[in-house]
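Please check the following for our workbook:

***
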Amino acid sequence: MKPAPFEYHRPDSVEEALCLLAEHGYDAKLLAGGQSLVPAMNFRMAVPAVLIDLNRIAGLDGIAEVDGGLRIGAMVRQRAAERDGLIAARAGLITETLPYVAHAQIRNRGTMGGSIAHADPAAEMPAVMLALDARFRLRGPNGERLVTAGEFFTGLFGTALEPDEMLTEIEVPAAAPRTGWAFDEVSRRHGDYALAGIAATVQVDDAGRCSSARIALLSVGEGPVLAAEAAAALVGQAPDEAAIRAAAEAASQRDIDPPGDIHASPEYRRQLVKVLVQRVLPRAFERALTRPRWGD
């Protein structure tokens, strides 16, 4: 199929793009990498009257270190982020996760901001940003505002973006000393959407006990799910087999209410989460215990 007729604009600046959004509102869609939007338009699952192409706008594709953390422009291509040394040094969880995102050809065009704004519950980057406690810089006619990842994702393909706003930048805070991370997922084939996945960051104190944890799960809810019960089971504990088993039980039984579909039942997704937590947390804690600083 081909998309329904639409009006096409290619602004040269953020200001121009925002003016177009203000003018057309809900009738408009922003085009970044187009790896989700264009197929949806071709199948007429999305029928925007106006398409606003962001690819000519300069300044949205930068990567910079700020106060030990990162600022990643919304138009940074996923493949560029995957290969970036600064991201690898300051947010290794992103680097580890990106090879799981679709295929290299898709990542060549797909953008970091586009994936986040699309908010697919089976996508990897929203869960990663939740695990990293990232913030998103949103820009609209009334100026800028910062929204945490926990506030940004509001439901199935739902975000805190207003119709006249756009995501311009991702802020990843500096990691504390003795922080570790890990990611894994289960899919039918590499490049397919995950049946379940997990992104985790953990921190240990000088005694080697868990002082904090953020465990974000994907493809088990209407958006990325922060496993608060699992994290609570870890804090104050030595990261041994018993503690990790307790966290896995909490994540699979109390933190999620997974959907069922033709690919996996709710019970199967719970089992996958249980297995993934026990697979990922030992790697994250090993990094936390052996790397006194994030970039080491």
Q: What stands out?
A: The radius of gyration is 19 Å. The mean pLDDT is 96. Residues 179-290 form a domain with the Enolase-like; domain 1 fold (CATH 3.30.390.50).
